[in-house]
Design goal:
Elements lengths: L13 H7 L2 H14 L1 H11 E3 L8 H7 L3 E3 L1 E3 L6 E3 L8 E3 L4 E3 L4 H4 L11 H7 L4 E3 L12 E3 L6 H23 L1
Antiparallel strand pairs: 1-2, 3-4, 5-8, 6-7
Helix pairs in contact: 2-3
Length: 181
């Protein structure tokens, strides 16, 4: 059988190429641009880094070490899992639930004899398609309900990030094993 012909190239804008690029390619490209242009590096630094504010640091030795240093401007929130700007983290900017998702036994989904739901199904998976069929243990709000806790975003600690990374890696390894069999 003859190989299928290569399709003709489609015109694209830079914005489309960026939007469609793999994240690793974007990181490599951004680093290369910053290495070649001091102006680009300054722009990217301004967008991705922020001055460390030492006014809340109590240890004077540490305060001196941190003075003039930069930190990442964008961090992940331990409570809501959203990315947030550390310079714009104020009271009320974060909504989350302290509880877990559970099945809502009163949901019509579980009372409809025409719909079968696996008894072992994860409430998070059920909630993706049927948010009304799950609720949070902390407040009994429906699965897609706004968080019952409100406050500032909370930085994910390095220790928690490492644990999450390990769990993700373990999940990928388990998934790889399953595919091979």
């Amino acid at each position: 059988m003859a190989p299928s012909p290569t399709p003709d190239p489609e015109p694209a804008t830079l914005e489309e190429a960026i939007a469609d690029s793999h994240p690793e390619r974007l990181v490599e490209t951004l680093i290369a641009v910053c290495e070649k242009s001091a102006e680009a590096k300054a722009i990217v630094s301004g967008l991705l880094l922020s001055d460390i504010k030492t006014d809340t640091v109590k240890d004077t030795g540490k305060k001196k070490l941190l003075a003039g240093q930069k930190r990442k401007r964008w961090e992940a929130c331990q409570n809501c899992d959203e990315e947030f700007n550390v310079d714009d983290n104020r009271e009320g900017s974060c909504n989350w639930h302290e509880g877990m998702l559970e099945r809502n036994p009163d949901a019509p989904l579980f009372k409809d004899p025409g719909i079968e739901v696996d008894d072992d199904a994860d409430p998070e998976e059920i909630g993706e398609d049927y948010p009304e069929a799950v609720r949070f243990t902390c407040c009994k709000k429906q699965g897609d309900g706004v968080g019952c806790q409100i406050g500032k975003h909370k930085l994910i600690t390095a220790e928690k990030m490492a644990r999450m990374s390990d769990l993700l890696r373990e999940g990928v390894e388990e998934g790889d094993d399953e595919e091979e069999t």
